[in-house]
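User: I'm curious whether this sequence folds into something compact or stays loose and floppy. Could you predict its structure so I can see for myself?
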Amino acid sequence: MIYDVIELNLSSKGLTELPDLSIYPNLRKLYCYQNNLTKIDNLPNGLEFLECANNLITNLDNLPSSLKELYCCNNQLTKLDNLPNGLRILKCPLNRIIELDCLPCNLEILDCSYPLTGFEFLKKSKTVIRIAVKN
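Assistant: Here's the prediction. I'll summarize afterward.
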């Protein structure tokens, strides 16, 4: 069965994995914060917003190319590679990330934890309008 759902809130449900999201082909916003997720796989192709904060996620690979906003605060991430080119907002504080390379050129807001290296892109980019680096 296919459901015509565009926003889904699975937060604070004690989940260790996400259910099959393929039944939501029109899903644009997914909230799955405050669970026990260690990975997030098989996200719908049209997803534009993902809030997966306060989990145990170690890797965020294979994000949909349509993603524009990613809120992945307070997880166990050590790197964020292969971010979608159209990503505009990235909020990733309280992780174990020590370097951010190859950030999307359309990124407008970056909020992350200190210490970080890899901010050389700022010298070349005029698209990032607000950056918050927290101690």
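Summary: The chain has a mean pLDDT of 87. Residues 1-81 form a domain with the Leucine-rich repeat, LRR (right-handed beta-alpha superhelix) fold (CATH 3.80.10.10).
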